[in-house]
């Protein structure tokens, strides 16, 4: 019996060691930048801004596995089996618990208007034990460390796929770590609340996009790249607080680009468009 | 006195004319989206039609309402330029096929959700020969939390085309472009590798 225990223990140890070794190997194996004699490939590499891509892809597949095995089933159960009339209080509670952090970050960003909104939502909900949505006609203010760093001028940095936590960037990882220490809820509430909130939040968010994620997995040519693009655009939209974006690449799609066949003499303008799109 | 009145009239006409013109492309773009959405709901959500008929109807509407070639070339990114003519043509037709296959079937799941155009703002770039409007709309997938959809509409005279769609601030064209870029840089760095991938997707 003792022998058996020892055996399974050492097997586990070996397994862990191998897993750690693989991970280290993958981390060390950064994506090698393409040679400089291929400017298109180099430009694409820089645009992706994902030097840890091999490691990120590995972590991503682990995350997808956890999602399929644990998160998605939980989210679907919540969506289908949890009584509909009990969902609003649960979801309001989670939202309201984010308001102190949103308040602090709105202040740090110098946005008094949104700071006030976050505070108002939190304090008016207090008498209901944070279970009510006291401003049903208004979108709740969500601000976090990554967004504050962005308004302070920190650039996004390379893309990072965090284990379990999912897509992030260098800046947003820094923000997440900071928020762990800053968040007033973490200081005031018990550890079960501060641990339960992110889990609850993830389940609720996931329960709303079960179909969309399934669809994206089914239709995307490269699921990893699609998620990377979606994450970046979503963060950019959050940082702008919903204001319409700067003139980005999209405006270069126009009616003249839509001409059925590109005549030879138009090749020059075509090139210019392409450069405008990538800059 | 009469002369003065006429002068004032002419002056107001001159001053308000460009404004009215700018507004008219906004209103027209909003109307264009509204009309296209109604057409889509009327023709694509019919439970009686076969999947094949639905795809054909979607393809017709897609060509009518979207700058299909412009979008396809944009999402192909920098690899478009170096591709030979026959590859370009094959890519354009595959792109359209894959979009049609991906989106047409979704309309069969439609069950009366409300679609509402909220208005349009001007986004015409400087020195542009065409007008660009951002048409804001809401799609009520649930009665309380609608999805915000923004349509970028380019227009010139009577010609209106959608050049991008943003869902909650996320551009479909940009997402598709980033994804295609990843596929191409992984395999061969040529438009032909994307074509292979798209063909596999279409025939699946």
Could you explain the architecture of this structure?
The complex is a heterodimer of chains A (279) and B (204). By secondary structure, chain A is an all-alpha fold. Chain A has twelve helices and two strands; from the N terminus they run ααααααββαααααα. Chain A has helices at residues 2-28, 39-48, 53-81, 87-108, 112-125, 145-151, 170-182, 184-188, 191-208, 210-219, 223-239, 267-278, and strands spanning 159-162, 166-169. Chain A has a two-stranded antiparallel ribbon with strand order 1-2. In chain A, strand 1 (159-162) and strand 2 (166-169) form a beta hairpin. In chain A, helix 3 packs across helix 9 (191-208) and helix 6 (145-151) crosses helix 7. Chain B has seven helices and five strands; from the N terminus they run αααααβββββαα. Chain B has helices at 2-44, 51-65, 68-76, 79-82, 85-104, 172-186, 191-203, and strands at 115-122, 131-139, 147-156, 159-167, 170-171. The mean pLDDT of chain B is 86. A five-stranded antiparallel β-sheet of chain B has the order 1-2-3-4-5. Chain B is an alpha+beta fold. The N and C termini of chain B lie far apart (78 Å). At the A-B interface, helix 2, helix 11 and helix 12 of A face helix 3, helix 4, strand 3, strand 4 and strand 5 of B.
């Amino acid at each position: 019996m003792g022998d058996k225990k020892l055996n399974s223990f050492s097997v586990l140890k070996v397994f862990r060691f191998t897993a750690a070794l693989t991970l280290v190997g993958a981390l060390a194996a950064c994506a090698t930048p393409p040679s400089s004699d291929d400017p298109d490939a180099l430009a694409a590499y820089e645009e992706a801004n994902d030097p840890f891509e091999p490691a990120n892809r590995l972590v991503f597949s682990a995350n997808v596995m956890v999602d399929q095995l644990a998160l998605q089933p939980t989210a679907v159960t919540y969506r289908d089996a949890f009584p509909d009339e009990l969902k609003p209080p649960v979801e309001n509670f989670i939202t309201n618990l984010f308001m102190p952090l949103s308040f602090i970050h709105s202040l740090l960003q110098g946005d008094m208007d949104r700071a006030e909104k976050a505070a108002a939502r939190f304090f008016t909900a207090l008498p209901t034990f944070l279970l009510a949505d006291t401003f049903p006609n208004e979108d709740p203010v969500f601000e976090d460390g990554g967004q504050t760093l962005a308004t302070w001028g920190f650039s996004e940095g390379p893309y990072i796929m965090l284990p379990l936590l999912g897509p992030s960037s260098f800046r947003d990882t820094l923000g997440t770590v900071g928020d762990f220490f800053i968040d007033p809820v973490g200081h005031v509430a018990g550890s079960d609340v501060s641990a339960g909130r992110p889990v609850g939040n993830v389940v609720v968010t996931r329960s709303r996009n079960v179909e969309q994620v399934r669809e994206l997995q089914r239709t995307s040519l490269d699921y990893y790249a699609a998620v990377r693009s979606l994450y970046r655009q979503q963060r950019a939209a959050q940082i702008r607080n919903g204001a319409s974006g700067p003139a980005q690449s999209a405006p270069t799609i126009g009616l003249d680009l839509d001409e059925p066949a590109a005549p030879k003499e138009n090749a020059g303008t075509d090139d210019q468009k392409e450069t405008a799109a990538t800059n | 006195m009469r002369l003065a009145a006429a002068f004032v009239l002419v002056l107001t006409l001159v001053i308000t004319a460009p404004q009215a013109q700018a507004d008219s492309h906004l209103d027209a773009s909003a109307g264009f989206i509204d009309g296209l959405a109604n057409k889509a709901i009327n023709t694509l959500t019919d439970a009686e039609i076969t999947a094949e008929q639905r795809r054909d109807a979607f393809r017709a509407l897609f060509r009518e309402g979207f700058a299909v070639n412009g979008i396809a070339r944009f999402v192909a990114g920098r690899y478009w330029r170096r591709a030979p003519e026959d590859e370009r043509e094959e890519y354009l037709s595959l792109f359209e096929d894959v979009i049609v296959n991906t989106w047409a079937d979704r309309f069969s799941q439609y069950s009366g959700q409300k679609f509402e155009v909220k208005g349009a703002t001007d986004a015409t770039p400087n020195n542009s020969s065409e007008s660009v409007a951002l048409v804001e709309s809401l799609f009520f997938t649930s009665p309380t939390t609608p999805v915000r959809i923004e349509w970028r509409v380019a227009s010139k005279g009577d010609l209106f085309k959608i050049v991008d769609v943003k869902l909650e601030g996320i551009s479909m064209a940009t997402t598709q472009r980033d994804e295609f870029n990843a596929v191409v840089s992984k395999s061969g760095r040529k438009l032909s590798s994307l074509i292979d991938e798209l063909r596999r997707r279409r025939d699946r």
